[in-house]
Design goal:
Helix content: over 70%
Number of strands: 0
Number of helices: 1
Order of helices and strands: H
Largest sheet: none
Length: 32
């Protein structure tokens, strides 16, 4: 699996942001 070097860090940041968003949503849904 080869990814473009220019969008590598961008992809990592995007996936990390989505992961954080999903975790926050899950935590909020679990608390309610």
């Amino acid at each position: 699996m080869t990814l473009p070097k220019t969008g590598d860090s961008n992809w990592i940041a995007a996936s990390f942001t989505f992961f954080l968003l999903g975790t926050t949503l899950l935590a909020a849904a679990y608390r309610c």
